[in-house]
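Sequence, please.
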């Protein structure tokens, strides 16, 4: 077997390296697939010979992958088919084969080796096509189509939603990037592609949290909704979010559409009735929702536990389990009474849900976390889910015996997408009951995934009215702030209503949030990094190039684009930029905008030595200088369009300075000459301003809360002890971080990652102890306690 393994050695090492880097046991995606079975079946005969295998240290992840991904049935099949005769034949076959040539290996030749990251060779066909496209310029059919309120036959109709923000709070930067800004970037890209695009959102306004907030502020629920809807709308307007319509869920259309879906589910037998024991306040003459009850936790005896969860121990609670319960409205003692509720029969709908999910996953773009979370729900088995609540503030239930109840917000809120669209256009059904012609993209943070991938689709499938279901579900991880979490009460982090007061333009915020966008894992906002990206990537790189190209046209060519005589190297440049533009499209079409895309223009824009040519020392060679300047200013014109989804105001400024014609402001797949010789540009001025260190430090301190202070001496108190709101928030964070650490350990994450998260947990526990007025002990991870 040694000979066979020697041939396979590099291949095994390559697989091992890939598995270790991705931190997964599966070759493709986040679960077992045909790839795992095929590779295992191929390697099975060799893997039986333990004496000839590389050590466990060398292929530990591969061994783990094989043991985790294969069922007993696979092993039995292999034993009968591959053993023992086939094993000998397979080894013999391998010994006769030449060693495989891996794509990752460099070819051995006398030619100098290409440096890592070097550009692939261009073909003559690619160069010729690029030159032809450049010469043609903008085609006559490139007029930008801005879409309309109706889904049209014969066009690509793209319907985009971002998760409805709850009305009772102010969104922070993580909320903004997780939902509305990500969706806005894609919507802008779709419009630049001339796709018929509709982007809707609005505030989610019904439910217990609204009633609670109204009580806190001494307002009616409607007044609270009006107040915070305006706050949300103002924030998104400042961030230049291009909703076609930003609405709300407290409308007559919401009632009509939600009740219609309910009636259809009822008529088709997908609703159940059951009795639930619930706390009733006899003084208030109402059943109490979870948030209207406080009491002593039955698990840890914390005296201010909520009716749904204890903020100290983090355990979920049924309100009737609370000891010494109190009504939060009147402080009276509630009593336990039975009440009837309606449930969506998810187990009965599962047989429709699963084939739809498989089809949507096969044809759509779902992020890995969205698929994983959805599979977890399906794997654990669906259970009937209550859809009614004993509240006043909500959509009324149109059924005798339940008319004093409203729909539970998780059932009601996603229907807001439909009702908000209905408030925008009377042709809303052309979008929401038209799955044959409409593609639906949902944007959200990962905690909203089950409601959009399981529960809401089940409601629409059960209603059986040809509803448009999600094709592409785009979920982000979480954005953290510096080394902690956003907290309004502690003054930690930047919230949407504060960003405009920093003096930093909205486009810089957009750029940096999109640069940080937590696509595959949590990311962290950093003031130092924001300053670095602004001053280096935007000001010195991108802004400098565009400004220099425009200034050369003004200063040395009388404000008009000069004649261009392309050399062979210039033509290769056109082809190279066109290939980069194709990659830009490929990633954005898949709803991926990683840092490389944002930094592409300044770093990789295919300029090569061109930027060096834009110096006054090159001007004695006037014809060459004219060609360099002309191509550079056309590249700046192309960048103006590419940047529009990310930084719309900067894009508009470039368009104005270079006087780019509106019919040229369309995103092409080719690098074309949009500013021909003789085109006159306008006044060119800097696009970005430097962020100074003192300015950033002042902002860091202003938004740092307790985090702004470094660890003080032991005699100094970091926070005033006894603040119940602070203690509650820290208790929640400790519980959340503890769950995160346990999940990492259960998934066998890398030790370095686990240790880093444990360190965060210990620091949170220390902060909690200080907030409670205790002297924090020196905490060390379990298993490392000092003796």
């Amino acid at each position: 077997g040694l000979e066979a393994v020697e041939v396979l050695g590099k291949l095994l090492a390559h697989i091992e390296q890939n598995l270790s880097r991705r931190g997964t046991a599966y070759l493709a995606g986040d679960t077992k697939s045909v790839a795992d079975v095929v590779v295992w079946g191929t390697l099975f005969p060799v893997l039986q010979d333990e004496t000839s295998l590389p050590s466990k240290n060398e292929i530990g992840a591969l061994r783990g992958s094989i043991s985790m991904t294969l069922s007993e049935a696979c092993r039995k099949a292999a034993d009968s088919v591959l053993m023992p005769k086939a094993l000998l034949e397979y080894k013999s076959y391998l010994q006769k084969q030449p060693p495989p040539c891996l794509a990752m290996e460099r070819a051995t030749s006398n030619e100098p080796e290409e440096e890592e990251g070097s550009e692939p060779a261009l073909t003559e066909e690619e160069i010729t096509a690029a030159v032809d496209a450049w010469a043609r310029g903008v085609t006559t059919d490139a007029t930008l189509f801005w879409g309309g309120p109706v889904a049209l036959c014969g066009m690509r109709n793209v319907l985009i939603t971002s998760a409805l923000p709850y009305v009772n709070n102010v969104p922070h930067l993580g909320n903004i990037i997780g939902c509305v800004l990500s969706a806005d970037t894609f919507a802008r890209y779709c419009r630049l592609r001339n796709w018929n695009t509709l982007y809707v959102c609005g505030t989610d306004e019904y439910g217990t949290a609204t009633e609670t907030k109204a009580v806190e502020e001494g307002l009616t629920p409607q007044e609270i909704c009006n107040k915070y809807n305006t706050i949300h709308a103002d924030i998104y307007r400042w961030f230049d979010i291009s909703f076609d319509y930003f609405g709300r869920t407290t409308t007559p259309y919401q009632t009509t559409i939600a009740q219609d879906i309910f009636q259809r589910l009822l008529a088709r037998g997908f609703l159940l009735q059951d009795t639930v024991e619930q706390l009733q306040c006899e003084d208030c003459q109402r059943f109490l929702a979870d948030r209207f009850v406080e009491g002593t936790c039955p698990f840890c005896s914390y005296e201010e536990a909520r009716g749904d969860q204890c903020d100290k121990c983090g355990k979920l609670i049924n309100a009737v389990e609370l000891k010494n319960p109190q009504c939060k409205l009147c402080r009276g003692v509630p009593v336990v009474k039975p009440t009837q509720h309606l449930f969506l029969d998810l187990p009965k709908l599962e047989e429709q849900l699963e084939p739809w999910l498989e089809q949507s996953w096969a044809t759509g773009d779902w992020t890995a976390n969205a698929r994983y979370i959805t599979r977890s729900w399906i794997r654990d088995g669906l259970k009937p889910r209550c859809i009614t609540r004993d509240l006043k503030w909500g959509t009324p239930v149109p059924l005798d015996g339940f008319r004093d109840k409203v729909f539970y917000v998780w059932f009601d809120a996603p229907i807001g997408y439909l009702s908000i669209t209905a408030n925008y256009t009377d042709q809303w059904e052309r979008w929401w009951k038209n799955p044959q012609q409409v593609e639906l993209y949902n944007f959200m943070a990962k905690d909203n995934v089950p409601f959009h991938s399981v529960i809401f689709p089940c409601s629409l499938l059960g209603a059986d009215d040809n509803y448009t279901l999600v094709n592409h579900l785009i979920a982000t991880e979480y954005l953290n702030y510096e080394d902690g979490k956003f907290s309004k009460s502690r003054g930690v982090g930047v919230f949407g209503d504060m960003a405009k007061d920093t003096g930093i333009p909205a486009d810089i915020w957009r750029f940096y949030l999109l640069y940080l966008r937590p696509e595959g894992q949590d990311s962290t906002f950093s003031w130092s990094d924001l300053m670095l990206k602004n001053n280096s990537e935007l000001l010195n790189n991108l802004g400098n190039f565009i400004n220099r190209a425009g200034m050369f046209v003004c200063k040395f060519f009388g404000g008009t684009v000069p004649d261009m005589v392309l050399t062979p190297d210039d033509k290769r440049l056109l082809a190279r930029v066109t290939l980069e533009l194709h990659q830009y499209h490929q990633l954005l079409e898949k709803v991926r905008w990683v840092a490389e895309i944002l930094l592409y223009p300044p770093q990789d824009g295919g300029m090569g030595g061109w930027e060096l040519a834009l110096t006054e020392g090159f001007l004695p060679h006037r014809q060459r200088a004219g060609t360099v300047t002309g191509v550079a200013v056309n590249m700046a014109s192309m960048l103006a369009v590419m940047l529009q989804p990310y930084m719309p105001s900067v894009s508009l400024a470039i368009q104005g300075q270079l006087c780019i014609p509106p019919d040229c402001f369309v995103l092409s797949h080719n690098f074309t000459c949009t500013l021909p010789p003789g085109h006159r540009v306008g006044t060119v001025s800097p696009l970005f301003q430097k962020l100074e260190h003192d300015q950033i430090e002042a902002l860091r301190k202003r938004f740092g809360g307790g985090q702004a202070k470094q660890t003080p001496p032991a005699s100094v108190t970091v926070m005033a002890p006894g603040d119940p709101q602070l203690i509650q928030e820290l208790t929640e964070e400790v519980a959340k971080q503890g769950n995160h650490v346990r999940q990492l350990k259960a998934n066998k994450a890398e030790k370095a990652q686990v240790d880093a998260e444990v360190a965060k947990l210990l620091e949170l526990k220390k902060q909690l102890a200080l907030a409670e007025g205790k002297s924090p002990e020196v905490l060390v991870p379990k298993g490392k306690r000092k003796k």
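Residues 99-117, 600-609, 707-721, 775-787 have pLDDT under 50 and may be disordered.
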